[in-house]
Structures are given as structure tokens and as C-alpha cells.
Design goal:
By secondary structure, the chain is of the alpha/beta class. 29% of the residues lie in helices and 23% in strands.
């Protein structure tokens, strides 16, 4: 059994090439993906500590063919840790991320706890990696929708600034975690068998159904919490505080990978051919835009992949000025929308 103590001496993240890494929330859906991404990309760590709630303590998870024990998260858990990848919810992040920083670690946090803190960079490496230079110990990983949409929008925005954005999301069960994914499978089976299924994880029946995203509605604006997060975070990532954004977030009966319909208005006229060329050369983006075969981005093809799929690139006929386009994107919420983006941030810290 391997533990941090059996591996070489830790080296400081951001100053040496092989940090000792802690994964907080290691037994969750995103935590599991973090481990797989670290292993797949051969992230150069010298030690690994897996942390989770006390009920998960004692479990073992494999990394690189070696079993690692899961430890209960505690105030002393970050001694000797250089880099802490958090994916255990905002409450845990608020309680333990400052402790990790005080112990000498750099924190990359998947929760929403610090995203809008002006002192915390909110980073998608393909968009605003330069913001990493301003971190003071904590770096925030954005909302999954903001990441997936941003990957498709940035190649356009950086050349022809987006002034107005309207979006509608088709969000999968993976955004609500492993328990929601299991509920969708169970609810679908019950529906097909003609049996009733009482929802436990999400507030409404999930099999063969869709519903407004299950975050509270702000009575002042009518927008739910997910929608507000995406609007605010997109402006912060793009450093575009005046960008006008409206979004409707919907949970759909798809296991994995979010899809988003986007209509954008640019400062200058834009045509689909130009946007298609910009997107074709953008890192982390793959064009799926075959009108002849009616083949465009689908969650089934985005699931398990690193790239954000972009297609249905067309003029917005509702804007005769020629400043607007509509397009459709799909990206894996657990990968580029969460774990992959966090590991890419860590890689940038070491580069």
C-alpha cells in the first residue's frame, strides 16, 4: 500500500516540477475524474494523498496501478502538501482551503466558494492563463457551463468582442454528481417498466423529463443560481464586465456532457465562415459542423472526450445588421467542465 510517506520528498508546486498532491473529495464523481486525468496526462507528482469525508475513510483507490488509502479530511491533512485539488463542495472549500494555503499548498478549487472573490483568479487556461500570476494561494475552477461555453466563445471574442450573449443549456446528470447519474438510470428503468419512481436527489422526475435547473430562484431577477453564476463568471473570465448576458439553464435526461445553444452579437459584423476558421484553429475545440449529414455536437460524442465540440454555426436571422451568429456546443462536464480544466491549471503552474 502506497502513501505519501513512501514516496520521494515533496517539492513545492510552482517552483519545482514534481509536487506532492492532495485530492479533496477523492471518492466523488469529479474526484474520480481528477485521479484519472492526473494518471492519463502523467502529471509529475511525487506524492499523493486522497482525502474525503469520514464515511469514506479506509477505502482504497488505485492510481498508477497502486492502491492508495482514502483518509478523512482534517485540519492537519495538508502538512507536506504542495498542491491541493478540491472537489468537495463550497462548505468544505471555505473551511479547509485557507488551512491548506496556510500549510504551504496552492489550492485549485472546483467549488463556487471563491470564484467571484476579486482576489482569486478564475481560470480557463486556453482563455486567461495569465491570471494565474495573480494568485495568492487559491485558484478557482469555473462553473462547468461557463467553461464549455467559454471555450467556444473566446476564439471569437478575442478577435471581435462579444457585446451580447443569449444562451440555453441542456445540462446532464453529471453536473449534480454521481448520485444524480444513478437516479437518472434508476428513473429511466422504472419509466420503461411502468413503475413509479420517487425522486430523491433531484426535485422532479428525471426519466424522460426535463426541468429548470435545480438551484434557488432569485426573487429579484427571476434567474436561478446556476444562471447567475454563469453570467457573472463569464464576465470575469473574459474580463468583460459590461457584456450583456441572458441564460436559461435546464436539466435534461442525459447522463454526461452538457450542451448549450448560443447566440452572440459582436462589436463588428461577422460571418459563419470567419468564425468557423477561428474555431478550427482554437486549442481544445473540435468542429462538428456537417450540415449535409445533419451532424452537429451531441453529448454522446462529447462524453469522455477532452475537446469541446462546436457546430451549427450560422447567421442569426433575427439580426439583419450581420453582427450576430448562433451555434451549438457540447462538452464533458466532468472533464473540461471540471477535472481536466483543474489539472490543466496545475500544469500551467508547473510550466
Amino acid at each position: 500500500m502506497a502513501t505519501t510517506d513512501t514516496l520521494p520528498n515533496p517539492q513545492r508546486a510552482g517552483t519545482r516540477p514534481t509536487p506532492t498532491v492532495a485530492v479533496v473529495g477523492a471518492t466523488g464523481a469529479v474526484g474520480g475524474e481528477l485521479l484519472r486525468v492526473l494518471e492519463k496526462r502523467r502529471f509529475p507528482l511525487s506524492g499523493l494523498r486522497l482525502l474525503a469525508s469520514p464515511r469514506s475513510a479506509g477505502k482504497q483507490l488505485n492510481f498508477g496501478g497502486v492502491p492508495f488509502p482514502v483518509e478523512a479530511l482534517a485540519p492537519h491533512s495538508f502538512a507536506g502538501i504542495d498542491l491541493a485539488l478540491f472537489s468537495a463542495g463550497s462548505g468544505v472549500s471555505k473551511a479547509f482551503a485557507p488551512r491548506a494555503v496556510a500549510a504551504g499548498a496552492i489550492v485549485i478549487d472546483n467549488a463556487s466558494a471563491f470564484r467571484m472573490d476579486p482576489g482569486v483568479p478564475l481560470v480557463v487556461p486556453e482563455i486567461n492563463a495569465a491570471a494565474l500570476r495573480r494568485h495568492r494561494g487559491i485558484i478557482a475552477n469555473p462553473n462547468c457551463v461557463a467553461i464549455v461555453a467559454g471555450m467556444a466563445l473566446w476564439p471569437i471574442h478575442r478577435r471581435n468582442p462579444i457585446r451580447r450573449l443569449i444562451a440555453s443549456t441542456y445540462q446532464s446528470a453529471s453536473g449534480a454528481g454521481g448520485a444524480a447519474m444513478a437516479e437518472l438510470v434508476e428513473a429511466t428503468g422504472c419509466y420503461l417498466a411502468g413503475r413509479d419512481h420517487a425522486p430523491r436527489v433531484l426535485p422532479h422526475p428525471y426519466g424522460f423529463n426535463l426541468f429548470s435547473h435545480n438551484t434557488p430562484i432569485d426573487p429579484a431577477t427571476g434567474y436561478n443560481g446556476e444562471e447567475i453564476k454563469v453570467m457573472n463568471e463569464t464576465r470575469k473570465i473574459f474580463d468583460a464586465p459590461e457584456m450583456r448576458i441572458s441564460i436559461t439553464c435546464v436539466r435534461v435526461p442525459v447522463l454526461r456532457a452538457h450542451s448549450i445553444a448560443l447566440t452572440l452579437e459582436c462589436a463588428e459584423p461577422i460571418d459563419p465562415e470567419t468564425a468557423r476558421a477561428w474555431l478550427a484553429e482554437a486549442p481544445g475545440v473540435r468542429l462538428v459542423d456537417d450540415a449535409a449529414s445533419n451532424h452537429f455536437p451531441m453529448p454522446v460524442e462529447a462524453s469522455g472526450g477532452d475537446d469541446v465540440l462546436v457546430g451549427r454555426i450560422r447567421r442569426d436571422l433575427g439580426d439583419p445588421s450581420g453582427h450576430s451568429l448562433s451555434l451549438f456546443v457540447a462538452g464533458d462536464q466532468l472533464l473540461k467542465g471540471a477535472a481536466l480544466n483543474a489539472v490543466q491549471i496545475a500544469e500551467r503552474l508547473l510550466s
